Every structure is written in structure tokens, then in C-alpha cells.
């Protein structure tokens, strides 16, 4: 049986947005277009429908609507799982434990996260 297709594809990872939620598990958001504040759950922010998908053009209906549907989304989900785990471990450790957690592999993962977030921010500006 095929897994459902993820249509809501976040350009800011939900695990990252969760770091800024209030006691009510929501973020305070400012809508620049409508000049208003509102509260929202992280899963309902910073996404676009089918953001990472490439539509087939002039292709057979048997191929479906997209090239390699959800492949990139799955890759991001796997990477974001690593990013979330590493950042949570580092945030929870004491100063004495920090050097132990800050391994070469963890540095690589944190650098990858930093680059992804920087690219995301530059695209938003």
C-alpha cells in the first residue's frame, strides 16, 4: 500500500519553529501583508503546498502528476530528524558535557543545518 503524499512542505523546519513556541504551544506571528498579529501552531506556518515537487509536463497520466513524488521531502525529513536530535542534545547538556557532544560528526550536522537555515533566510528576504 502506498504511503500518503506529503503536500504541506515546510521551508522552515517544524522542529526549529517549535523552539520558539509559548506556553500555549503556539507562535506569535506578524502578517506583513495584512499588518496584523495572530497565533498559530508551527505545523501551520512556513510551508507551501508541493513546494519541493516538479510537475510532469506533457507526460502520460500513468506517470502521475510529479517527478519522483516526495523524494526530496523525505530526504529533508530524514535530515531534520538528525538536526532536531543534535540540537536538543546540545541544548540539554551542561557546559562540561558540551565538548563530548560536539563531535566531528555533530559539527558536520550542525554546519549542514546552519547552511540550510541561511539559504532559507536569504530566499525569504
List the helices and strands and how they pair.
Blueprint: E1 8-10, H1 14-17, E2 27-31, E3 36-40, E4 47-49, E5 54-55, E6 66-67, H2 71-92, H3 95-101, H4 104-124
Antiparallel strand pairs: 1-4, 2-3, 5-6
Helix pairs in contact: 2-4
Distance between the termini: 41 Å
| Order of helix and strand elements from N to C terminus | EHEEEEEHHH
Helix coverage percent: 40-55%
Overall spatial form: globular
Overall pLDDT level: 88
Number of domains: 1
Q: In a few lines, what is going on in this structure?
A:
Helix content is 43%, strand content 16%.
What tags apply to this protein structure?
125 residues; alpha+beta; two-stranded antiparallel sheet; 4 helices
Structure commentary:
With 125 residues, the chain is α+β, with helices and mostly antiparallel strands. It has helices at residues 14-17, 71-92, 95-101, 104-124, and strands at residues 8-10, 27-31, 36-40, 47-49, 54-55, 66-67. The chain has a two-stranded antiparallel ribbon with strand order 1-4. The protein is globular, with a radius of gyration of 18 Å. The protein starts with 7 loop residues before the first strand and ends with a helix.
Amino acid at each position: 500500500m502506498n504511503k500518503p503524499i506529503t503536500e504541506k512542505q515546510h521551508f522552515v523546519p517544524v522542529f526549529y519553529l517549535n523552539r520558539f513556541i509559548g506556553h500555549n504551544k503556539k507562535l506569535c506571528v506578524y502578517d506583513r501583508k495584512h499588518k496584523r498579529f495572530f497565533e498559530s501552531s508551527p505545523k501551520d506556518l512556513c510551508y507551501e503546498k508541493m513546494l519541493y515537487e516538479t510537475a510532469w509536463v506533457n507526460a502520460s497520466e500513468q506517470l502521475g502528476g510529479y517527478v519522483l513524488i516526495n523524494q526530496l521531502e523525505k530526504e529533508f525529513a530524514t535530515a531534520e530528524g538528525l538536526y532536531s536530535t543534535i540540537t536538543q542534545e546540545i541544548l540539554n547538556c551542561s557546559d562540561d558535557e558540551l565538548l563530548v557532544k560536539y563531535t566531528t560528526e555533530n559539527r558536520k550536522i550542525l554546519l549542514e543545518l546552519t547552511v540550510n537555515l541561511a539559504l532559507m533566510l536569504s530566499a525569504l528576504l
